[in-house]
Amino acid sequence: MGRLGALGVCSEDEQLYRALLVRPESTTSQLAADTGWPATRVGRHLRSLLALGLASRTPGRPAQYVPAVPEAAVELLALRKQAAIVEARLGASVLTAEFRARNDACNVIRGASAITQRFSQAQQCAQSEVLVLDWPLELGRVPGVSYRVVHDMASLAEPGDVAAATGCRILRDVPVQLVVVDRTTGLLHTAPEVVVELGPSSLLDGLLRLFELLWQQAAPLSPSAPEGPLSFEDRQLLALAAAGLTDQAIARRLGVAQRTVERRMQRILKALDATTRFQAGLRAGQRGLLV
């Protein structure tokens, strides 16, 4: 097992990543020559590196591959590993919560009408903070209350959804639908038209830890960052790209042509003196342009 094995990176993936570090912007054929592997084997492990966030593909042909900055890549892998552990524990806790529905710490709410009513009540009672993970009901924000919201990118299917999500964060594959009010009351979707309401408990503590991990991983969609070389629309596009969307998916969500997205991305790369999207996202984050 390689040095990254504890983070879910197999030894062959790590070997190819190290080859990329030695020769950035390599093609598949160059990597095949460097490693002595068949091109099909190189292609298989390149796809794995892309999925892990350890490499990115540059525009144009032949395709070239660039390694992620090791420190940033390892930190992201560690966060994902932590989130996976919390999620696994959460799965067992949710089953326990449903089994113990009559316990004072939790209550099962069934039916769309009852869920909507309880959600509205919980929001109106908020004093300081509401935390949200991909909640399906519309948020009517309470004045004076801080909101932190993470949307699953699949939820932003229409052009207007991205504008409505401004000030929130987006992430691929948010594992649960959750609202936590003032860190004392949680509403957790466990099935269609079934919500488990939680009071102070070890399960709620686990959900709060899961939220913080996902919040760190999510890409921000914020109008409040300093503009600098990027317009708000540029920052919005870059955040969607950082969350893993393709140009086609970004175009659909923003309601523009795919060529428009490609032109704007090239302008963003030039403005940030970056050669890859990953590098652009990293530099934008370092300058506070995506905060």
Topology (elements, then pairings):
Blueprint: H1 11-22, H2 28-35, H3 39-52, E1 55-57, E2 65-67, H4 70-99, E3 106-110, H5 112-124, E4 129-133, E5 146-152, H6 159-164, E6 168-171, E7 177-181, E8 185-191, E9 194-198, H7 202-217, E10 219-221, H8 232-242, H9 247-254, H10 258-271, H11 277-286
Parallel strand pairs: 4-5, 5-6
Antiparallel strand pairs: 1-2, 3-9, 4-7, 6-10, 7-8, 8-9
What does this structure look like?
The chain has three domains: 5-67, Arc Repressor Mutant, subunit A, CATH 1.10.10; 74-220, Endonuclease, Chain A; 223-286, Orthogonal Bundle (Arc Repressor Mutant, subunit A). It has eleven helices and ten strands. The chain has helices at residues 11-22, 28-35, 39-52, 70-99, 112-124, 159-164, 202-217, 232-242, 247-254, 258-271, 277-286, and strands at residues 55-57, 65-67, 106-110, 129-133, 146-152, 168-171, 177-181, 185-191, 194-198, 219-221. An eight-stranded mixed β-sheet has the order 3-9-8-7-4-5-6-10, with helices on both faces. Strand 7 (177-181) and strand 8 form a beta hairpin. Helix 2 (28-35) crosses helix 3. It is globular and about 60 Å long.
Number of helices: 11
> Mean pLDDT, as a whole number?
79
Radius of gyration: 21 Å
The fold-level CATH name of the largest domain is Endonuclease, Chain A
State the CATH superfamily name of the largest domain.
Endonuclease Chain A
Task: Classify the beta-strand content into a percent band.
Answer: 15-25%
Give start-end ranges of low-pLDDT stretches: none
Structural class: alpha+beta
The CATH class of the largest domain is Alpha Beta
- Distance, first to last CA: 37 Å
SSE topology string: HHHEEHEHEEHEEEEHEHHHH
- Total strands: the figure is 10
Oligomer: single chain
* Strand numbers in spatial order across the main sheet: 3-9-8-7-4-5-6-10
**Overall number of domains:** 3
Fraction of residues in helices? Answer: 40-55%
GO molecular function: DNA binding
Domain HTH luxR-type: 223-288
InterPro entries: Sig_transdc_resp-reg_C-effctor (IPR016032), TrmB-like (IPR051797), Tscrpt_reg_LuxR_C (IPR000792), Tscrpt_reg_TrmB_N (IPR002831), WH-like_DNA-bd_sf (IPR036388), WH_DNA-bd_sf (IPR036390)
Protein name: Regulatory LuxR family protein
